[in-house]
Every structure is written in structure tokens, then in C-alpha cells.
Design a protein that fits this description.
- 2 copies of one chain form a homodimer.
- By secondary structure, chain A is of the alpha+beta class.
- Chain A is built from 4 helices and 7 strands; from the N terminus they run E-H-H-E-E-E-H-E-H-E-E.
- Chain A has one domain: 3-Layer(aba) Sandwich (Aminopeptidase), CATH 3.40.630.
- A 7-stranded mixed sheet of chain A has the order 1-2-3-4-5-7-6.
Amino acid sequence: MKIREAKQSDFNQIWKFFKTIIEAGESYPYPSNMSKEEAEAEWMMPPKRVFVASKNEQIVGTYYIKPNQPGRGAHVCNCGYMVSSSAQGRGIATKLCEDSQKKAVALGFKAMQFNLVVSTNEVALHLWSKLGFERVGRLPKAFLHAGKGYVDAFVMYKWLEK
Amino acid sequence: MKIREAKQSDFNQIWKFFKTIIEAGESYPYPSNMSKEEAEAEWMMPPKRVFVASKNEQIVGTYYIKPNQPGRGAHVCNCGYMVSSSAQGRGIATKLCEDSQKKAVALGFKAMQFNLVVSTNEVALHLWSKLGFERVGRLPKAFLHAGKGYVDAFVMYKWLEK
């Protein structure tokens, strides 16, 4: 598996699993009925830097990295990750997150923050914990889960600089 | 004092205290050297709705309100407030925050979240607590304070719906 910077044309492949993920409505806030054009604008828009994981020219995952705040908060980055359901269970999310942490340091970021980790998304919570992120906040009923209604979400944070 | 929706031309007056606030570098992440044009684009840009407090045609404070997240997180709004230093100590921030909570409910929001309340900003922390916001998270060294270097910031949150 290779991780490289995304080209705009990669979104055609990204959209296949992006669509599945937002239709499920269990992890990302993006509305389930978002169009491909809206999703592309959201995911690929600068100042986001976007990367893809590919295997035999097939894109199996993607992440973005961007400053979470302007100026005096711009040393903290924010990332989002998506993995194709057909490629799950192979540690791709782990590799994407590890890669994003290296890229973050190389880009001069000092910390990484996830703003809305859904409390019912146990796979993500477990994974981010394992990769060194702490739950630094809990947002009551901040996420409208497709199946469960309003559920809490966590803010997770990791200081990257040694 | 009257609170009304801002017109684009109001930013000429807003900029006077906006500039002072960002130059101090103690409360907002906006870079201290932001130009008026950048500040106007940041503060007045849709989907933000912007309001001003005026007294005798003089603008003494402003706030914005916007969804803090898209879609499944869009029931939580985010607001930012600024008050002219020449008008401080008269309860204007309190009035702006109370007004924003009413507007938020009228606009259909169910909760309000502040993403980066600087831990050294005791006036703000005290005020938001008094107005019903809880510290739901602490972000280690997430704010680069002009005088104190990296300091923690709080996430504060209030459920508005009864």
C-alpha cells in the first residue's frame, strides 16, 4: 500500500466509499444526501491537504490535514480519515493516522485535534486511543446519529512534538 | 443599546475594536497582523450571521452565529463576541450572549459551543459560566498567547433547548 498526495481526479474513487460512509450517518457530520460535487468541495478544498492510500491503482482510503484554527491556534491540526468498507480490517486507518502524524510534524504542526468523534463509534475511539489520542472533552448530544438520534461526541487530542 | 443584524458597511466601525483585540493576542486566534480585508472576510462571511450592538449610531459590540459543524452536527451553533474596549464593564458581552442564545433558538439550533476559550481569559470564563456554559473539554497548549506562550483552552457548551 502506498500513501501519496491526492489529485483532484482521485475523488471519483474516493466518492464510492465517501457516499457509503455518509449514507450510514454514524461517523461523519456531512449530510447523508450530500452530492458528489458538495462532497468533493468539502473534502478537497484548500487549506486542506489531502492524501490517499492506494493498492494496485485502487484507492482504499483517504485523509485530509488542515489547521484547526487560524493564527494563534494554527499549530494544532485537524484530520479526517475514510477507508473503503471493502478494505476494512487491514489496518489501513492505523496507517493513515500514523502517516498523518508524521506529515503533521513535517508541516510544522505541534498537536492534532479531532473535533467530533462520535461516542457510539467504538472502533474509532479504540483506534485513536491506541494511537495516542486522549479524550479531552465530551460534547453532549452533539451528533445526530442516523439510527440512534442525538448522541455524545468526544474531542480527542494529541500533542505531537516530542 | 440596540442589537440589530449587521450591514457590510458596519465593519468599518467593528474593525476599530477588532484590531485592538487581535493585536493584544489574548483571546481570539486570528493573527495579530491580519488586514482589515482579511478580518472582514473572516467575521462577515456566510454562513455566519452577524449582529451588532449600537448606541447612538456607535457600534460598541458584535457577534456572529453559525453552525459549528455541517449536517449531523449542524444543530449545535458556534458564536464569537467582541466588545469595544471603550465600552467594557457595562454588561454588553452579557447582553450579546443572551441575545445570541435567543437568536440561536429562533434559528433552530439546539445547543451552543465555544471551541477555544483561552484558559487565561478569566473574564470570559467567568461570564460564560454565569450564562450557563459548561467547560466540557480542555485543550492542552492549544492557544499561542501573545504574552504567555502556549496556554490551554477550554471547549464550552450549553444545551439551549428546554
